[in-house]
Structures are given as structure tokens and as C-alpha cells.
Design a protein that fits this description.
Layout (H helix, E strand, L loop, with lengths): L1 H15 L24 E12 L4 E11 L8 E6 L6 E6 L16 H26 L14 H9 L6 E3 L5 H6 L4 H8 L33 H15 L6 E6 L6 H13 L3 E7 L2 E2 L2 E2 L13 H4 L3 E5 L3 H16 L5 E6 L17 H8 L3 H12 L5 H24 L53
Parallel strand pairs: 5-6, 6-7, 7-11, 10-11
Antiparallel strand pairs: 1-2, 3-4, 8-9
Helix pairs in contact: 2-3, 2-11, 2-12, 3-9, 5-12, 6-7
């Protein structure tokens, strides 16, 4: 009864407050670059929020700026049509525009751009080799491709510092290459060879190196790695070090509950998490248009009180700059950043998925935005940092390295469960190894003066 009386009282008081006239949201102008080459904030989000002050009522608009580095803003929609066996996805909108240019990086040097191009090329050629090995029956299990996403994987990993951490997912094999793994390591892993990173105990991408390369193994349950990377950043802070923890999640995995819980924890604790949301338009066979209502997934950063930014995932310079700035924030102890990279998954979910559900027009549209072809043109024809002859030599060098790694991986022995005693099982025991603090001694926060000692432990439930 008391609650009902209070509600009625509040309703009466609210009725006395005059409503402000409706406010029209101004149209956001088409974004252009600023004088320094940086993007003007676009996608300004407005939402009404009525605030009642002590003396009068006022209506305000809370505006959120989502910086958008892209040089094009495609407008198309994927929809479902037909019935029964004729059910299919269609696409509507203008898909005739030419591919945009590569945006100049504010941080990458000429030499770094060429090195980045080489990583991307090696990533692409390695996955072609893996596809051939699969068709030859030499791969155990499936293969997951990052075709069309090489620029995002390689550029984001390249932005990390030596003390920073990487938590890759299944399509981020380019990030693994940048972080120090060889194509030979990755091919051996997929072939479950005895000298693979997991010694044949796993036949997919679940491997890392926490000792030398600061790489956490991928976790199949999407979103779980976000909490792991937040924990790494927290552990480093307890050792007196602010590090960046870079990991990825797709447009489908971004909607999982653990993603929200982990990102919220990182935001509250101001941990150096750098989350790249790879919006590649498809969560397995479900298009993004049928997964969420927001136009841009970067908008979700607003709810956590952290910066969000949008980049063209096929432009490695945009990806690098956004990740570099996010890592710098992490090093200063300013908390996490959410980066939405928009691109297209150019193959199915895995090698077993022919992706026949994807409209052919979409493949054509994004094929014209191939990150490697555009970056190659940028380096040779736009910047002149690479001659055609130098590019030919670079490609030959990549092919030579890849062929040597492929032959070594094929020649590697399969694990022998009877004689291989070097690595026992898949579980760790006390005699295996001891994980020690990496950056320094752990320093706990001092207890507040006068707070006394620890509280007495009480039972969770009191039973009579």
C-alpha cells in the first residue's frame, strides 16, 4: 500500500511539470576529413533523456560521438524472401560504387607498411595452402579461413607493444604470424603433427604461447576470451604494469552474455582491454541485419562508458591507427576500447560451409574491396614505396618461405601415443611448470585505516 501511495504521489507531481516542446534532431552532415587528416566524428547518436531538476523541468538531448574512420558508408540491406525450399537471402541497395582509397596512416612508417603488406600476403597464401592440404586429406578436422580479413588481423596485431597480449580467434591466423608463429607451426597444428604447438593433441587453432609471445590460445565458446584478456590486464596491473590485451569477437559472438559481463568488468576496472568486433556480416548463416537492431556495433560501447570507433576492416591503415590509439589508452591506464571493423567474410563459416546462402552480389561487392589488392596498389601506384620489381621479389620470397614450411609440415611425423613420452596428456600437474609473475611482484591494495582485520567467515546458509 505504501508503495502504491508513493507511485500515485509521484504521478501527481510529474503531471504538474510542464513538458518541453519537441526538439528536432539536426541532420548529421556528410563526414569529411579535418585539416590534420583525422576523421570528423560521424554517426552522432541522439536519444531523448528527460531530466527533472529541483526548480524546473528541462528536456535535453544526450549526444554520443562515434568516430568513423571509413572513407565510404555503404547502405544496403540483407533480407529473406521466398517460402519453403525456395527461401533465400536477397540484398537491396547500391552495390555499384567503386572501392574507396586506402587512408594514410598517422603512425605507420614506409617500412612498416611494406612489412604489413608482406604479413597479409603470407596470411593469404598460407590459407590457400591449407585448403589444398585439406583437399588432399592431410588436415585433421576442419579449416577456418580469414579470407578478406587479413588486413584486420595483421594490422591490429602489429599495433601491439612487446609487453602487450594477444588473444586471437579462429580467423586471426595473420595475427599469429605477426606475433611470431610461422606458417609451418600453423600448418602442423591443423595436420595434428607430433611437433605442432600442441604436439598433436589438438587439430585446430587452439594454441598459444604465454611464455615468450604473450599469446593466449583461442576459446571456442565465443566471448569467453574477453574475460581472460581482462584478467591478464588486471594481473599485470597488480604487478605494476599497464598492458593492452587485444582480442576479437564476431558480430554473432558479440551478443553473448559473457561478452557483456567481461566488457563491463573491464570498463569498471579501467583495464587495458582492446576489443575488435569483426563485423563480417554473417554469424554462420545469419546476416547481421537479423542479429541486432543497432546500425553500428560500436554504439554498444556507449552503454559501458568506453570509447567506440568504427573502421573499414579491409583498410589496414585504419585498423592499425585505431588499435594503436587504443593500446596507448591502455598503457596510460585509461581503460578499454571497442573497435568495430566492418568487412565481409569471403568464405563460409569453415571449409565445410559453401556459403551458398550469401547473395552473389555481396561477394562481388566485397571482392572489389580486397584488402591485399588495394594495399598493393596503394604501396606501388599511390605512394611509390614499392616498385613493381620489388613487389615481384617480395611475392617470390613469400612463396619460397611458404613452400619450405609446407614441405616441412607434411614431412613432420604424426604423434605416437606409445613412444611419445615428452608431453604427457593435455592436463597440467604440479610437476609440469610453475607460472610466475611476469612483470614484477604482486602488490595488493593496502587496507583502509581503521578497517580492522578480515571479517569472520559465516556459513552461506543457516539451517535449523
Amino acid at each position: 500500500m505504501a508503495h502504491n501511495k508513493r507511485s500515485k504521489s509521484l504521478q501527481k507531481e510529474s503531471a504538474k511539470v510542464p513538458l518541453a516542446p519537441p526538439t528536432k534532431t539536426p541532420k548529421v552532415p556528410t563526414p569529411v576529413e579535418q585539416a590534420d587528416g583525422s576523421p570528423k566524428p560521424t554517426n552522432t547518436k541522439t536519444s531523448p533523456a528527460t531530466r527533472i531538476s529541483d526548480d524546473s523541468a528541462s528536456s535535453t538531448l544526450r549526444c554520443y560521438n562515434i568516430p568513423d574512420y571509413r572513407l565510404e558508408h555503404p547502405e544496403f540491406r540483407i533480407f529473406m524472401s521466398g517460402e519453403g525450399s525456395s527461401l533465400e537471402y536477397g540484398v537491396e541497395g547500391d552495390l555499384s560504387a567503386a572501392a574507396p582509397p586506402i587512408r594514410d596512416s598517422k603512425y605507420l612508417s614506409n617500412e612498416q607498411c611494406i612489412a604489413l603488406y608482406r604479413w597479409m600476403l603470407l596470411n593469404r597464401r598460407m590459407e590457400v595452402a591449407l585448403e589444398n592440404l585439406y583437399k588432399q586429406g592431410k588436415v585433421v578436422g576442419g579449416v577456418y579461413f580469414g579470407l578478406g580479413q587479413e588486413g584486420c588481423s595483421c594490422a591490429s596485431a602489429l599495433a601491439l607493444g612487446p609487453d602487450d597480449w594477444l588473444g586471437p580467434m579462429i580467423r586471426n591466423q595473420g595475427a599469429m604470424l605477426v606475433r611470431g608463429f610461422s606458417a609451418r607451426d600453423i600448418m602442423r597444428q591443423y595436420m595434428a603433427k607430433g611437433d605442432s604447438p600442441t604436439w598433436g593433441r589438438d587439430a585446430s587453432s587452439h594454441f598459444g604461447d604465454w611464455q615468450r609471445r604473450n599469446v593466449c590460445a583461442p576459446i571456442s565458446m565465443l566471448g569467453e576470451l574477453i574475460g581472460v584478456m581482462a584478467g591478464i590486464c588486471l594481473g599485470a596491473r597488480l604487478q605494476g604494469k599497464n598492458v593492452a590485451g587485444l582480442t576479437y569477437v564476431g558480430d554473432g559472438g558479440q551478443s553473448t552474455g559473457v561478452t557483456y559481463e567481461s566488457l563491463n568488468f573491464a570498463a569498471v576496472q579501467k583495464l587495458g582491454l582492446v576489443l575488435v568486433v569483426e563485423n563480417n556480416l554473417w554469424g554462420y548463416s545469419t546476416p547481421s541485419d537479423m542479429q541486432f537492431c543497432v546500425k553500428d556495433l560500436a554504439e554498444r560501447a556507449i552503454a559501458y562508458g568506453i570509447p567506440g570507433v568504427i573502421v573499414d576492416g579491409t583498410d589496414p591503415c585504419q585498423v592499425y591507427d585505431a588499435t594503436y590509439e587504443a593500446c596507448e589508452r591502455a598503457h596510460r591506464g585509461e581503460g578499454p576500447t571497442l573497435i568495430e571493423a566492418k568487412m565481409m567474410r569471403m568464405k563460409g563459416h569453415a571449409i565445410h560451409d559453401a556459403a551458398q546462402y550469401v547473395p552473389a552480389k555481396l561477394f562481388d561487392y566485397w571482392r572489389n574491396r580486397d584488402p591485399i589488392a588495394r594495399f598493393e596498389n596503394y604501396l606501388i601506384n599511390v605512394k611509390g614505396w614499392l616498385t613493381a620489381e620489388d613487389n615481384h621479389k617480395l611475392i617470390e620470397d613469400v612463396e619460397r618461405e611458404l613452400e619450405a614450411d609446407r614441405e616441412a609440415a607434411v614431412a613432420s611425423p604424426m604423434p605416437d601415443p606409445e613412444t611419445d613420452k615428452t608431453h604427457q596428456g593435455v592436463y597440467c600437474d604440479p610437476s609440469c611448470h610453475q607460472i610466475k609473475p611476469k612483470y614484477g611482484p604482486v602488490v595488493a591494495k593496502p587496507r583502509e585505516p581503521g578497517s580492522g582485520g578480515p571479517k569472520a567467515v559465516e556459513a552461506a546458509a543457516h539451517l535449523k
